[in-house]
Design goal:
The protein is flat. The chain is α/β, with parallel strands linked by helices. 41% of the residues lie in helices and 22% in strands. The strands form 2 sheets. The chain has a 7-stranded mixed beta sheet. Strands 1, 2, 3 and 4 form a 4-stranded antiparallel beta sheet that branches.
């Protein structure tokens, strides 16, 4: 009887072991599948962020090249021809100063100029790492029929202030879209002054000339920091390094002091980090990182 029971127990143990082993193997298989899915999702996010960041950087390069073309062209024909040359193409494709990795830029087709004055072409960004490859394309249009040689009166009046509901506002030149006269704003109300500087790269010379002339310090400065920790963003938008450079220069020329509150703003997917991570880095330079719905008193 004892041996019979012992055999039954052994058979029962073997059956239980078999069931447990099967469940364990299934769990391992599920964990492997979930791990693989998570890895693919993460890799897809990395590729997407790199591709979008590279296209945004090319966009910034294009804005810079438009500014160069405007400064160095005496006729609309010269302005148009600038975009048809190899220098323009090579400059806008250059993202070597950034931290974007495994990503290349090319212009897949010929730059086209039509009779209406419109220059069109495509940008192709390719991310490739190991067995992963992803491509994004963006269409670009540049209008060369701008009549930009007849805007001197508008430019001369750019620093003229106006009043809105008790707020005194002074438009200042931005480094963004020169052909459209992009501006940032110096705003004053009840003795407090704010410099609202979004959608701009490092300020143009005429804006620095204004800031050097003012006989006050801004109480608060809100700066475009679209790229945050990416490098080389000095035109169109700024990265953290450019914001530090703007802050330091404002301190040197007397437009800001130790009591001025500097806020980083205008973030995009290029910022990469979460708010808590960004603030930890920004603390090194005494910046406040903005968030949706933030209110600041000064």
């Amino acid at each position: 009887m004892y041996y019979s029971n012992k055999g039954s127990v052994l058979i029962f143990i073997l059956i239980v072991f078999s069931i447990v082993s099967t469940i364990t193997m299934m769990c391992i298989g599920l964990n492997y599948s979930n791990s693989r899915i998570n890895n693919l999702n993460y890799q897809n996010i990395v590729m997407k962020e790199s591709l979008l960041s590279s296209i945004e950087l090319v966009h910034s390069n294009i804005l810079k090249e438009v500014s160069i073309a405007l400064e160095n062209s005496e006729t609309e024909e010269e302005f148009k021809n600038y975009f048809l040359g190899n220098i323009f193409v090579n400059n806008i494709k250059n993202i070597s100063n950034s931290q974007i990795q495994n990503t290349t830029i090319r212009i897949p087709s010929k730059i086209i100029y039509d009779s209406s004055g419109l220059i069109t072409f495509q940008i192709e960004s390719t991310f490739k790492q190991d067995n992963y490859t992803k491509k994004y394309r963006a269409n670009v249009e540049i209008n060369t029929d701008l009549n930009f040689f007849n805007t001197s009166d508008e430019i001369e009046n750019k620093f003229e202030n106006f009043t809105v509901q008790g707020y005194q506002v002074t438009p200042l030149s931005a480094d963004h879209s020169a052909e459209y006269g992009s501006v940032i704003y110096a705003i004053e109300h009840e003795g407090k002054r704010l410099l609202y500087a979004h959608d701009t790269g490092i300020f143009p010379d005429e804006t620095w000339a204004y800031l050097e002339r003012v006989e006050f310090c801004f109480d608060c400065v809100s700066l475009d920091c679209t790229a945050f920790r990416l490098h080389g963003w000095k035109t169109g938008h700024m990265d953290l390094e450019s914001c530090v450079a703007v802050k330091d220069r404002m301190m040197r020329v007397g437009a800001a002091d130790q009591d001025t509150k500097f806020v980083l703003n205008h973030f995009s997917h290029n910022a990469v980090y979460l708010h808590e991570q960004m603030q930890k880095i920004a603390d090194q330079y005494n910046f406040t990182v903005a968030w949706d719905g933030m209110e600041i008193s000064f």
